[in-house]
Amino acid sequence: MKLVSKKWVAALGVVSVVAFSTQIAQAAEVALKAFAIKAKLVAGTNEVKLDKDPVTINGSLYVPVKAIGDALGQKVTWDNSSKTLTIKEYPFVANKYTWTTAPDLGSGLKEGGFSGLVHVPGDPDNVFYSLADRGPNGQITIDKSVNRTFPVQDYVPRFYKIQLDGDQIKVLETNKILLPVGAAGVVSKNRNTTGLSNVSTDEKSYDNTGKTLLPLDPDGLDLEGITYSPSDDTFWMSDEYRPSLIQIKRDGTLIGRYVPTGDKEKLKGAQTPIFDTLPAIYSKRIANRGFEGVTISPDGKFLYASIQSPMAVPDKATGEASRNLRILKMDLATKQIVGEYVYAAEDAKTFVNVAQKDVVISDLQALSTDVLLVDERDKNEGSAAQIKRVYKIDLSHATNILNQDLSSNLEGTSLDQLKEKKIITAAKSLVLDLTKLDYPFEKFEGLTVVNKNTIAITNDNDFGVGEYDANGVLKINDKQTQVWVIEVKDLW
Fold it and tell me: Residue 393 forms beta bridges with which residues?
């Protein structure tokens, strides 16, 4: 079942076979003479390696199907039990997994909100880590003010070790994010962190009614991305609030929080060790649009973090109209920032019903020291979605703008002006377009790589939080938390 007729090969129109010599063999199964052909298979200008020689039977040329699939960028599989040969064009969805057993959080809500995903090298291919953000939250209008509500006030930010089994997401471990041993949070009064806002200039936190203001917590976290450091067996996470980067132990204990220069003073009373070593300008992130993606290079030397949206530089209106997103590079040996690069988001004007402010980066995945995958998406879902894409970029060819004058006015600089200044943005090549795979969710927020042909993604279902009705009662929806495993063609 590894052979294909020359008629099918000819119909493909992209593959040629050149024969050099023949050798007679006996095809005992059908009592026909088969002639093995010393040949080469050429796709375009590239020769395809053959694990077996082509043969002729009754005047027809047969070529191994796997070689044809490789030549066309398609995957060939053989199911011996059903005697079925399947040829699939990359990329394709290999499996989908759903979290159907999420524990209750109270108020009709369940755990969920997967905001990031990482596969740790050495773990089985079906085992991953994910995390949830600040907890269930909604928006209610009170006296013409749109207030952010926290229906589960005692929620503790957490991360999960999960296993994909059958069609299910199974949680192997749940680890809450904890303050250092001996510390007690100003709000929790124990080691638990909260998802509450840090300072008065953040988006304000209210109770479920939207009327009672909740206390500020200098240790509060709104976590969005997760990655693993092989050099010291720790996890790093990205936070939207400050924005900040946090390092934790495997049991969830906080090691340190890295914030923009000048923000340490704002976090008085924090029990987490604070290091204000990030560029000060990052404190000008638009509210609820801080760090989203985070990844560490496979050699463990560098961490990359991406801002979700262009920042309010010099003001919010400029940021919301800009296409210029920032990616930071940290040297993990020194914990110092050593690079800043420009990533140009897609132009919203070339799509239907897409606002530029809603074209965002939601995750990163490092393939090598400077080559990353970028999760870029819009705010639409289902058939209305325009941008749910994975791009590959190589930052070794991009301009490092760290500490340059341009960094202080990046959002107000057009792409044409960047070219005039000889600033090279991160070149993008498309790896995956989820809109072509009928992806149903808005928040494609987690991205990781298992091997050179396998990507895993996950969505943030916002804990099933819906809208408030006219009586101020929070509605719960049935949005699922899912992980999709997708086969792609040779990431490296």
Answer: 372, 428
Indicate the burial class of 37 (C-beta count within 10 angstroms; 0-12, 13-18, 19 or more). Answer: buried
Is the omega angle on the peptide bond into residue 314 within 30 degrees of 0, that is, cis?
A: yes
Non-local (6+) Cβ contacts of 179 within 8 A are 185, 191, 192, 193, 219, 253, 254, 271, 272
Residues in the chain: 492
Angle at CA 385, nearest 5°, toward 350 and 94? 125
Q: How far is CA 327 from the centre of its chain?
A: 14
- At residue 243, φ and ψ (nearest 5 deg) are -80, 165
Helix and strand element counts for the chain (H, E) = 4, 36
Separation between Cα atoms, residue 341 and residue 325, nearest integer Å: 8
Strands 388-394 and 55-57 turn out to be unpaired
pTM metric for this prediction: 0.88
Choose among 57, 4, 63, 64: nearest CA to 32.
57
Biggest CA–CA distance in the chain, Å, is 88
Rounded CA-CA distance 372/37 in Å is 43
Backbone conformation region of residue 122, classed left if phi is above 0, alpha if psi is from -120 to 50, else beta: left
Looking up tokens 């375009």 gives 44
Encoded tokens for 38:
């010393």
Is pLDDT at 56 greater than 50 in this prediction? yes
pLDDT level of residue 53 (50, 70, 90 thresholds): confident
Mean per-residue pLDDT over the chain, rounded: 92
Q: Residues near 182 by Cβ (< 8 Å), separated by ≥ 6?
A: none
Taken in order of first residue, the domains within the chain and their CATH numbers are 3-89 (no CATH), 93-487 (2.120.10)
Which amino acid does the sequence have at 92? F
Alpha-carbon distance of 133 to 112, in angstroms, equals 9
Measured in whole angstroms, the distance separating CA 473 from the mean position of its chain's CA atoms is 33
- What are 321-346's pLDDT values in tens digits? 999 999 999 999 999 999 999 999 99
How many degrees, rounded to 5, is the angle at CA 114 between CA 110 and CA 116?
165
Residue 160: both structure tokens together: 């999960």
